[in-house]
Design a protein that fits this description.
Number of strands: 18
Structural class: alpha/beta
Strand content: 25-35%
Distance between the termini: 27 Å
CATH class: Alpha Beta
Strand order of the largest sheet: 3-2-1-18
Number of domains: 1
Shape: globular
Number of helices: 11
Helix content: 25-40%
CATH architecture: 5-stranded Propeller
CATH superfamily: L-arginine/glycine Amidinotransferase, Chain A
Length: 343
């Protein structure tokens, strides 16, 4: 019997968001207090709309995180803690990529190599297997795939089209041709086609141009992308070229995509290093879009753009300046779990 597994779009109904609480043994140690504020704000925002599943390294961390959340008056009925080991908290890249076939689920467990060996990742690479043994999920099985692929590197419209960047996939698999990579991605992820962006990067991003920092699918054949309108900025030419790439893309039935360019935040410099303040790294949940805010005048403009792209959802700003210090943002620390996967 053949199956009909499908890779759902992020805006489809969810059972929970999966995150991992930062602690002193992660790379957040030097600025733990600042990043905890972001996590408290994130959980407060998620739990207004749906449950959140929080990985914690031990009982003491759970007790501490629960106290922080209760003091912020978070809706604790929508919070569930699970014990797990993790090197860091980038769950978009170490968490499960979930396919569904009606009420059945397949959790794809790709290799996580710390973005091409940049960081220690052995515990993160084991996370999906660890979670799958906890009786958290319903009617599922895990497919382990010996191939490096991060969730932040791929976008789907839920209807068979995948969006990704050539830079990232080529960096992970330099010996593979574009045709070979297309065949692998369409097979594992049950896609009909792959759209490749050949341009786009952000200083301060060490993922080798993850798509979720640059361009995102939105409902009704739309793409939201990070633009740059500052001709004096080092990103200007590359992001203009990416915008041209996106304008040339066509939907499965041959039409141009509707496009929503996001505004450009002023440079954020930390210790002489520029950080990647991308508005494209937003998170879609049931009834809302949670967007990263950086304390920049462009925050409110980005919220207006996202309200146009997602008119049926509330736009909630989450302070994320602390996250970009470690080269990621809001979407990077989260993974959505489709409705029905968790009871």
């Amino acid at each position: 019997m053949t199956d009909a597994y499908r890779f759902p779009a992020e805006w489809e109904p969810q059972s929970a968001i999966l995150i991992a609480w930062p602690h002193a043994e992660t790379d957040w140690a030097d600025r733990l207090a600042d990043v905890e504020e972001t996590y408290v704000a994130l959980v407060a925002a998620i739990t207004r709309f749906q449950p959140v599943l929080i990985c914690v390294a031990d009982d003491d961390l759970q007790t501490y995180a629960e106290a922080r959340l209760r003091s912020a008056r978070v809706e604790m009925a929508n919070v569930r803690f699970v014990p797990a080991e993790y090197d860091d908290t980038w769950l978009r890249d170490s968490g499960p990529i979930t396919l569904r076939d009606g009420g059945r689920f397949k959790l794809l467990d790709f290799r996580f190599t710390g973005w091409g060996g940049k960081y220690e990742a052995r515990r993160d690479d084991r996370l999906v297997g660890e979670l799958s043994g906890m009786q958290l999920f319903h009617n599922y099985f895990v497919q382990s795939i010996d191939f490096a692929l991060e969730g932040g590197a791929i976008e789907t419209d839920g209807a068979g089209t995948l969006l990704t960047t050539w830079q990232c996939l080529h960096e992970r698999h330099p010996a593979a041709s574009r045709d070979e990579l297309t065949a692998k991605l369409t097979g594992w992820l049950r896609q009909n086609r792959v759209l490749w962006l050949d341009h786009g990067y952000l200083e301060g991003d060490d993922t080798d141009a993850h798509i979720d920092t640059l361009a995102r699918f939105a409902p009704d054949d739309a793409i939201v992308y990070q633009a740059c309108d500052d001709a004096g900025d080092v990103h200007f030419a590359e992001l203009q070229a990416m915008a041209t790439d996106i304008a040339a893309l066509r939907t499965a039935d041959g039409h141009a995509y509707r496009t929503f360019p996001l505004p450009w935040a002023q440079p954020v410099i930390d210790g002489g290093r520029r950080l990647a303040a991308s508005y494209a790294n937003y998170l879609i949940i049931n009834g809302a879009v949670l967007m990263p805010a950086y304390g920049d005048p462009a925050d409110d403009i980005a919220a207006e753009v996202l309200a146009q792209a997602y008119p049926d959802r509330e736009i909630v700003q989450v302070p994320c300046r602390a996250l970009i210090w470690q080269n990621g943002s809001l979407h990077c620390i989260t993974m959505q779990l489709p409705s029905g996967l968790i009871g």
